[in-house]
């Protein structure tokens, strides 16, 4: 009898532990979380933290369509200069205060000072106000065609809605109050930088009724607690931990790990972000030899995408060539103007370089040695450019040195650079206003600083266009011009499926690393 | 002796000052801009410049050094650029894992290596001595991360005895604490077992050739008493010295071990801070390490008094 009692107690304790374990989702995010203000920085980890804690006015679904999220209904005036929005009922911050139009106006104002697309939107905004607690309005100086795209922007900087007292923090200062109205509550007392971040289910969150899709739809939470393991960053250690069931999710495994992960029992690969990422190499337009458009054309011709994808990703089903500078399979994707790269050859590149007047100036390529996701791209670029006839100086450094050095406008010999390569998540580059690499505003542009008045005019026209066919035509023209002046070389697209334990299900398809709708059943 | 301790403690001040100047200068010479890193991928030059000003990095370097040193003198190590919490608090958060790992490592290393070294000296030239010397060479040669992966594969993945990663605080229970720590400690201790066993063997071997050992044996003392009471006691000073050096080297050794086993300790914090160019954190951690290094050396020096009565300060 006594033995039976002990057995029953043990079984009950085991079941309780199992149940408790099923309520905790243990995630290994793709990087460290060190900045908690998703408006102050464009870091993707801060954005992902934002999606846990904050809610958005609009979301973007898996088909790249903007859908209402906190907004219940909205309307525009006949002249399209006044946009009126009504918030849906039941929205509340974690401290219990209702979300009001004033919170929205303050949040949008702060976001509009930091985010590139937000700044563009604010250049059209005359004023914003909140005529009622659950309403807000945007008054435009003239109509523009990207109000909803900007408000539903799924990637950095996302216009997250914060309480007014938080959003009133100056835009160049980080917030230190992390109260949001999103599906999870940030456990500030359990946050240990470099160790772990903890989020609890927001029981008062009222999700939308629609099916979750991308950053849109119902944000249903099925686990009590999400723990981000920030200490586990060694690729092999991550695989070991997942295989042994010590963690539930690897957000972005290293490509080299997939073979092992496929063979691990109890582990599945989930391609929840089919649009994935796009690689690119950026030219510095300020200094020789890439201050010469003909040299940039020659470089474009020398850089076909397949060798980069094969070397960097290596797994055929995970990558594809994409002639578009805007993410393939999204509304503005096209092959317009891409022939210079996609239909070229090394012979053609050599001819173009000869006729460009290239004087043998060395090309300094920055190679990050500590970022596995992109570290092979510079090697491939160096080899291909050498084959085309360029003199190349490939310099190895850590990624943060690349990040620091690319901001320097000095000549390469004085600490500057000629080429660096990087990767973008799909939403960051899927339209002409969010795509930072397609800009011609000179020193105000993204690193590389191309100057081209025509490109800037086309982008302005795009911002003003309100009809979709016209926007598409302008996007094509923008891309054609970007290829013509050689802003950068797109290097193809890839996906990076997450790896999870089999008992973790309900992944939301679409851009963004989000953890609503995810269920964890007992092991 | 108290005067000696006081003087040694006083001497840490110029040492730390030199370290402070060197670390500060080296960091400013290192390529990498914390503002650009913090701003994120899509930030433009204007945003980066604003962040730089916000961090005070637009001030002249001498002024930056003056501000930082002024704070340090008042016991304030500054605030992390990233986490916006005090560096002292960051160190406090990370101290327990590193301290626990280092303590267990040294404990294992001493408990294993000293008896092995004594035995090898006692059986000088025999199979045990040769085996230990072979193990020492291997212990020195195998990189820590290779050993870590091998142990994880065998002990955690194949046998399933221990977790593959992570750290549990001692407050969460002794068993989870030790289960998570034992494998990293064994991994890290191998090199110290090799080092201390070699030195113990050499020191005991030298002592065994002394006249007082012959006298002890002639008096009819047991071999165990001769070895422990006479040979090992007289060989203790070099052994204590090498243990002290080992503790200092350990500070560097925990970096790799903490990375492979995902232990959120000071080693990992240092690497993260260096990669992110978090200047205040790097400066604070290195000052802290320097202080620990000086303190360990002081303790070793003091231990000589107890290990060898002939030594007086």
Radius of gyration of chain A: 24 Å
- Classify the beta-strand content of chain A into a percent band: 15-25%
Give the CATH architecture of the largest domain in chain A. Roll
Total individual domains of chain A = 3
**Overall number of strands of chain A:** 23
Intertermini distance of chain A? 30 Å
Uncertain segments of chain B are: none
Poorly predicted runs of chain A are 3-18
Chain oligomer state: heterodimer
Silhouette of chain B: globular
Order of helices and strands of chain B: HHHHHHHHHHHHH
The assigned structural class of chain A equals alpha+beta
Helix content of chain B: over 70%
What is the CATH homology-level superfamily of the largest domain in chain A? Dipeptide-binding Protein, Domain 3
Principal-axis shape of chain A: globular
Determine the CATH topology of the largest domain in chain A.
Answer: Dipeptide-binding Protein, domain 3
Name the average pLDDT of chain A.
92
H/I helix tally of chain A: 16
Kindly estimate the percentage of residues of chain B that lie in beta strands according to DSSP.
Answer: under 5%
Task: Briefly say what this structure is.
The complex is a heterodimer of chains A (523) and B (313). Chain A is an alpha+beta fold and 523 residues long.
What does this protein look like?
The complex is a heterodimer of chains A (523) and B (313). Chain A folds into 3 domains: 40-174, Dipeptide-binding Protein, domain 1; 232-273 and 497-520, D-Maltodextrin-Binding Protein, domain 2 (3-Layer(aba) Sandwich), CATH 3.40.190; 277-494, Dipeptide-binding Protein, domain 3 (Roll), CATH 3.10.105.10. Chain A has a 7-stranded mixed beta sheet with strand order 10-11-12-1-13-21-14. Chain A has a 6-stranded mixed beta sheet with strand order 16-20-15-19-17-18. Chain A has a 4-stranded antiparallel beta sheet with strand order 5-6-8-7. Mean pLDDT of chain A is 92; it is low at 3-18. Chain A is globular and about 65 Å long. Chain A starts with a helix and ends with a strand. Chain A has helices at residues 2-22, 44-53, 101-114, 116-122, 147-151, 164-167, 235-243, 258-263, 293-302, 305-312, 339-342, 346-356, 377-388, 399-405, 453-464, 468-485, and strands at 24-28, 55-56, 58-60, 66-68, 71-76, 82-87, 125-129, 135-140, 160-161, 184-186, 196-201, 225-229, 249-250, 267-270, 277-283, 319-320, 362-368, 391-397, 419-425, 488-494, 498-501, 504-505, 519-520. In chain A, helix 3 packs across helix 4 and helix 15 packs antiparallel against helix 16. With 523 residues, chain A is α+β, with helices and mostly antiparallel strands. Chain A is built from 16 helices and 23 strands. In chain A, strand 5 and strand 6 form a beta hairpin. The longest helix of chain A has 21 residues, at 2-22. With 313 residues, chain B is mainly alpha-helical. Chain B has a domain at 95-307: MetI-like fold (Orthogonal Bundle). Helix content of chain B is 78%, strand content 0%. Chain B is built from 13 helices and no strands. The longest helix of chain B is centred in the middle third of the chain and has 36 residues, at 87-122. Chain B is globular and about 85 Å long. Chain B starts with a helix and ends in a 6-residue tail after the last helix. At the A-B interface, helix 7 and helix 14 of A face helix 2, helix 3, helix 5, helix 7 and helix 12 of B.
